[in-house]
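Pipeline run #58 for the internal structure catalog. This entry was flagged by the ingest filter as a single-chain record with no existing model, so it goes straight to prediction. Upstream metadata was stripped on purpose; only the residue string is passed forward. Reviewer on rotation: M.T. Logging verbosity set to normal.
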Amino acid sequence: MQQQHDDDTNKVTRFEEEELQSARASVETLTANLDNLNQRKADVLNNLEQLRERINKKGDATYTGVQKLVPLLKSLKDLESQESVLQSDYDVKRTELEAEVCNLEEKIAAGMDSEGLCKDLDCLLSESLEKLNAAKKELAARLRAVMSVKRKLGEVPTQSELIQYERGFSDVNDHIQEKHRQTRKYYATYNTLLEIKELMLKETSLLNSISSQFQDAITTTNGCTKLIASMEGIVKGSQQRLQKVELGLQEEQKVSDALKKRYAAAMAEQRRCYSLLKAFQVSTGH
């Protein structure tokens, strides 16, 4: 009988130790889950910080991304508030579990009746299982919310995609500028040829007029005077057109000089950048 009683006592003791270990494992599981949630929160905050840096660098090019980030930031704030609530709940549950563990240890140390202790342990185990299942459900909901935020963040263009967009826009802008320059060149050529045509037509008309009226003009004094006045008017008009052409040439020369200066400055900057790159490669050993 004494041996049977000792065996029962040993079984109860082992059962109590297993229950204590189970309770401690539950506490450790909750702690690990909370640490995992904190790590996920840190990852989300890190991703948001990187996105803010990209937005600050890209400016207006990422305005659409900013619009997408506004609801994401709101979701993050909601998740943070939920996390604070879960943290407080976790603290309360941990305190309760620690109190229960201490109570069990006191009962074991005081030599409580095995049957009553088993009932208490069963009750505590049932409550712990219920709390564990509730914590798992909360954790699953939390994970779903985090995954939803990650999917929404994935819809925001990455830095490489933004660089590709910027490069594409730059190529399109260069193409448009080149087309615009060619169009201006063609219009300038057309206007120049049109002026030449008008001058040639006027010159032809003048020569025809002189040829038809020259014989009549030189026979009379009045006709000769009119011819001389007409020639002076033609010379004056030609001089005015020549001055206009010279002014246009001067303007074009100024533009050409400005472009040459810009080109020289760009070449100097390129040489400076090349020398800096060369010095950097030498200093880094590449």
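catalog note: The domain at 2-157 is CATH 1.20.1270.250 (Substrate Binding Domain Of Dnak; Chain:A; Domain 2).
catalog note: Helices lie at 2-58, 63-110, 114-154, 159-219, 221-284.
status: ready for reviewer M.T.
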